[in-house]
Amino acid sequence: MNIHEYQAKAVLKEFGLPVSRGVPIFKPEEAEAAAKELGGPVWVVKSQIHAGGRGKGTFKGAPEGAKGGVRVTKSIDEVKQYAGEMLGQTLVTIQTGPAGKQVNRLYIEEGAQIAAEFYLSMLVDRETGQVAFVVSTEGGMDIETVAHDTPEKIVTFSVDPATGIMPHHGRAVAKALGLTGPQAKEAGELTTKLYAAFTAKDMSMLEINPLVLTGDGHLKCLDAKISFDSNALYRHPDVVALRDETEEDAKEIEASKYDLAYIALDGTIGCMVNGAGLAMATLDIIKLYGEEPANFLDVGGGASEEKVTAAFKIITADPQVKGILVNIFGGIMKCDVIARGVIAAVKAVGLEVPLVVRLEGTNVEQGKDIIRNSGLNVIPADDLDDAAQKIVAAVKKG
Asked: Domain ATP-grasp spans what residues (predicted)?
């Protein structure tokens, strides 16, 4: 689960981390009061969306060369002007894709005198099972570009959960950023607090870009992006309360109500599969035969008829879907149960696009009989390769 920058900074502030003062607003008329509360003389008006690259982004319909989603000003009148120009508009960044995201919130923040910009992030290293730090002197830039062009400028290290954060980790951060003396000590304290926040809140990713050295020689988290481990949210009702569903795909929200693993994609073939590995293979083979999947959808090993029906409704709610492929391997899940669920779902939601069903495993013959005798226009398939070719052919034909 992701949260907005202003929410992330509030979380970091709980752990004593240095962040700038700011005020979130939701209406243009709130901008003047927010600016006066902060006092100036410099303000930063920041679009709040769940995507990076806001500063370089562009608003749909704005004149070419218009300012991006993060703007600096020395005037309260301009704060008001920018709020009016940004709220309710669609911001397109390198991470949103061409569709962009609507800006429903702004963060009015006090300006900062910046002497240097750094990059610092934390994430869970799945290979080591440890929390990893990624640190670079190249803050404020696309870290992917830095990694590609100058990988030697990125320093990474992991923290053993058996020991937790240690003084040498703070020294590693200070050394990577070229900090000495009091600033090195400050880097050590910051490292300790970041690790405490990351582990206490069950974060999966924490990115500070940029982490800045201010004009008076102190470190400050000038931007913050946080993702939380969705499997641990039951432990953090305070984090769940920060969820902004307007930033999420409505189909993914609906899928979560039925415990379905669903991710919307950009293709034309809807997929319903049981098992993450089989689902990935299904997506791959669709691409192999020249089409793009419209979603990743894993109904799991114990899907009920209700779950299958819900999955079908979610798939067919996507107007881009031109065909559906059901690919089920019945181990724990029985093929006849899936078949009945598919038939019930088709009757419940209607079917206006081609449907290919491939069943294999427990009670497969019973499942195929149910499909054959349903009277519905369902195309049976013998194996995954056959299924992929049939659905791709049907979509291209129709």
From this structure: 9-241
